[in-house]
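quick one before i forget lol
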Amino acid sequence: MAGAAPCIHGLKLEGRSVCHLPCRVPGIGDFVAEDVAVTAPGLVVVSDLVLGAVNAFQHMAQAPQGRWLGTTAPASVLGLEGPARWVWGLTGGFAVSEEFGDVRLFGNAYQPLGSLGSLTGHTFGSPVGVCTDAEGSVIVADEQRHQVTLFRAGAPMCLVSKGLGWPSGVACVPQGLVVADAGDSYIKVYQY
């Protein structure tokens, strides 16, 4: 349909659609989905690069299109600058990478806790990927600085820089650290 908002589709492993979510928040308007993830309680959370927000969505069986729970981090309140990726922390809070700025930290009630840059003195180039490890440490892929950095208590520690072209994503798995490198189109696995 012409003029319809883009949608996020929830699919089963075999590719069958389970639900679809219009990229439109009532009272706010259309948005551009940058990153999508599902939380343990089953919320679909989407970062919106254009409006500078993180939106939460709850799928309900009786409403296949689901319903929005509301905007959890609107730009007018939190001042996010191009939220690219986000990740839930172990304590229920979350971190949001701002594509051309910093990585913002939020508590379990969505309250701002500060940024990794201001809390640690670290300067980011373009933090485009973020994840947490089993210990709750935040790991950031910085596309402009061509490195992946671990933020634990104390000073930030560069985990990987050699051999990275344009790290565009990062994830922690039992085997180690997985980095998507857009520079050479490889998925790389590191132990740390």
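fyi The helical segments are 75-78, 116-120.
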